[in-house]
Specification:
With 348 residues, the protein is α+β, with helices and mostly antiparallel strands. It has four domains: 82 residues, Orthogonal Bundle (Arc Repressor Mutant, subunit A), CATH 1.10.10; 41 residues, no CATH class; 75 residues, SH3 type barrels; 109 residues, no CATH class. A five-stranded antiparallel sheet has the order 7-6-5-4-8. The protein has a four-stranded antiparallel sheet with strand order 10-11-9-12. The chain has a three-stranded antiparallel sheet with strand order 1-3-2. Helix 2 packs across helix 3, helix 4 packs antiparallel against helix 5 and helix 8 packs across helix 9. The protein is elongated, with a radius of gyration of 31 Å.
Length: 348
């Protein structure tokens, strides 16, 4: 039980050491800085910064006597380093740290919805210049999905152009053609979306980039009406509400993962290893396909309409695989290709 705590303590000590080594050159470059301002810049509380300064006061060169230790002067809430004990340069990035930072910035620059890509690219150029050969390894950063499609969407957003798109709606399992006026690009849950005013629905809609089958940029500007308000996506794309259908499933141990992956209203223990799980869905058509994909360890409890739909779809699928055994036995041997599974099914 003590090992995790020890690792956590070691990590905290390492973080503090790095902070202390950077603190001295930071303060040297800003003599007389207010402690509150320094704490804000360094991302720590004033109390933590004061504790760091007290620790620095007893650090220095071997001998640890007068003239060996780091010294500083306080003027009210302002601090000035008066002796740095040779710690006058900030830490340099290790090769792994430099590469990780460069990759993260490249990914950020490619992310849809980023407001100021030029600032990111300037910061990236400075870090690559400072790191030099540390980041010389060839690294290609690509977002998941069709990069060309995302670039076309981003160009339309930045150019303020209307789009004609062919879009697959998974909830209804249908493909439609729409004219949309883009509002913004964004990344949610690792997927790229374009948020736009849909002229067909006369409302703001989110369109997943990987579900857009075709894009045509129209020769007209995007016309976004005043009532078009972007969605609040701080809690994700799907936000359950009381007006959506509520379904209840009885799930076994192997399907409990859905309680972690989907927002559930209620999870209760049932008989044995079974749980009763209630969640909101966009519509029962999506719920039917969802349940059918889960396997035999899930049973629909409510609503009855969904249970009937699942039962009917499953029965239709089984009927499609059914083979009349008597008919196969009556068929001439040369009417069935060699190796046909129907022959084996009819002779067992």
């Amino acid at each position: 039980m003590t090992r995790p705590a020890a690792r956590g303590g070691s990590r905290a000590s390492a973080d503090r050491l790095a902070r202390l080594l950077n603190l001295v050159p930071y303060l040297l470059a800003r003599p007389g800085i207010e402690i509150a301002e320094a704490a804000g810049d360094l991302g720590v509380t004033e109390r933590q910064l004061r504790e760091d300064l007290e620790l620095l006061w007893v650090c220095g060169l071997p001998g640890y006597g007068p003239g060996d230790l780091i010294d500083m002067a306080f003027d009210g809430d302002r601090v000035t380093i008066t002796y740095d004990a040779g710690i006058d340069r900030p830490l340099r990035l290790t090769p792994d740290e430099a590469l990780a930072l460069v990759v993260a910035l490249r990914m950020l620059a490619e992310t849809p919805g980023v407001a100021n890509r030029e600032a990111i690219e300037r910061a990236l150029a400075k870090i690559e210049d400072a790191a030099g050969d540390l980041v010389g390894a060839p690294v290609a950063v690509r977002l998941p999905g069709d990069t060309r499609r995302v670039e076309a969407l981003r160009a339309a957003v930045e150019g303020g152009r209307a789009l004609r798109i062919t879009y697959y709606t998974a909830a209804r399992d249908e493909t439609t053609e729409r004219v949309v006026d883009p509002l913004r690009m964004l990344m949610v849950g690792g997927r790229a979306y374009v948020e736009a005013w849909c002229r067909r629905a006369e409302a703001v809609r989110l369109f997943r980039a990987d579900r857009i089958d075709a894009i045509t940029e129209l020769d007209e500007p995007a016309t976004v009406p005043p009532q078009a308000v972007p969605h609040d996506l701080t809690e994700g794309v799907f936000r359950p509400s009381s007006d959506l259908p509520l379904i209840t499933l009885r799930v076994g141990r192997s399907e409990r993962w859905i309680t972690e992956y989907y927002p559930c209203e209620r999870v209760e223990a049932g008989d044995g290893d079974q749980w009763l799980v209630s969640l909101r869905v966009t519509d029962l058509g999506w719920a039917r396909r969802f349940v059918l994909g889960l396997g035999p360890d899930v049973t629909v409890v409510a609503p009855v309409e969904l249970a009937d739909q699942v039962r009917a779809t499953a029965a239709a699928a089984l009927d499609a695989y059914a083979v009349p055994v008597a008919a196969v036995r009556r068929a001439p041997a040369d009417s069935v290709p060699p190796g046909d599974p129907a022959v084996a099914a009819g002779t067992q």
